């Protein structure tokens, strides 16, 4: 209750900000985009992780105002990257919570953010967890189709951790899957995890779906993923999440 109360005005007080973690194309190591990750600098408790407060925001409904604020900020930031860097525009990938999918007028919110920021639809990626689409696949599919018609890309996040993972790919229209970092963590040691990762990549490719590996912490994992034809990767070995200013500096070294 305490946290909920404090979280309520946190965005307006400037305590919340976005960190960006770079995403790379595995085949040639080129940076192609970044994932937006919310950070809360609490005035007395210091940095609070999203794993702690996203659930609170989700349960009390605050996510319905916070979600659109995050989306809007991320779109404007992505436009700023392109202005300062030129070249091929980077995509920005934004996490969308189950509640935003169920209750928010997400297609309208997305359209507003794109129009106001001037960001190209193809440069906006939305990350949904498997749990957000499980149970209500008819509604979710219709919504995702509507979103994808606008050109926005939709990713299934934390892929592999849900129970019905692979079968979902046939019923829910998505552009890509992000293999959960718990699988990537052991691909160098555990043949089962490597087999599963390889199977996910093959299955996804057979359906024309792109694959991102999360949590790449070692060069060996990256090499293995390249051998297995994984499309994109992110993780501490490639780049940590950093504040907007730092990310911007990374794009245009002085
Ligand atoms: O940033 P890590 O740094 O700790 O993020 C932890 C979890 O919080 C991840 O599962 C991520 O998907 C989620 N998360 C981070 N930022 C956001 C956000 O802006 N919105 C939602 N819904 N989830 C987020
Ligand atoms: O569920 P989601 O994918 O949105 O979670 C992103 C989370 O993963 C963030 O908390 C981010 O800080 C974290 N993360 C990013 N790269 C790595 C990594 O290489 N290793 C670990 N352990 N966590 C990572
Ligand atoms: Mn994510
Ligand atoms: Na994930």
From TrEMBL:
Q: Which domain of life is it from?
A: Bacteria
Q: Where would I find the EAL domain in this sequence?
A: 1-254
Record's protein name: GGDEF domain-containing protein
Q: Which residues of the full protein are shown?
A: 459 to 712 of 712
């Amino acid at each position: 209750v305490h946290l909920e109360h404090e979280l309520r005005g946190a965005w307006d007080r400037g305590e919340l900000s976005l960190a960006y973690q770079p995403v790379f194309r595995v085949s040639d190591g080129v940076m192609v985009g970044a994932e937006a990750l919310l950070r809360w600098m609490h005035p007395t408790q210091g940095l609070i992780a999203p794993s702690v407060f996203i659930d609170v925001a989700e349960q009390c409904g605050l996510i319905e105002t916070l979600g659109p604020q995050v989306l809007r900020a991320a779109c404007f930031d992505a436009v700023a990257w392109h202005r300062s860097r030129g070249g091929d525009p980077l995509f920005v990938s934004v996490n969308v919570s189950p509640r935003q999918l169920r209750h928010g007028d997400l297609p309208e919110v997305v359209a507003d953010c794109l129009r106001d920021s001037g960001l190209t639809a193809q440069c906006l990626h939305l990350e949904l967890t498997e749990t957000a689409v499980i149970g209500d696949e008819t509604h979710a599919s219709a919504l995702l189709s509507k979103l994808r018609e606008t050109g926005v890309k939709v990713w299934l996040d934390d892929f592999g951790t849900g129970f019905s993972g692979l079968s979902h790919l046939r019923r829910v229209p998505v552009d890509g899957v992000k293999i959960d970092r718990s699988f990537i963590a052991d691909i160098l040691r555990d043949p089962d995890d490597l087999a599963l990762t390889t199977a996910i990549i093959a299955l996804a490719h057979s359906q024309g779906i792109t694959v991102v590996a999360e949590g790449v912490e070692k060069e060996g994992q990256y090499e293995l993923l390249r051998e297995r034809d994984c499309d994109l990767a992110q993780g501490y070995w490639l780049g940590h999440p950093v504040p907007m200013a730092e990310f911007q500096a990374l794009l245009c070294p002085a």
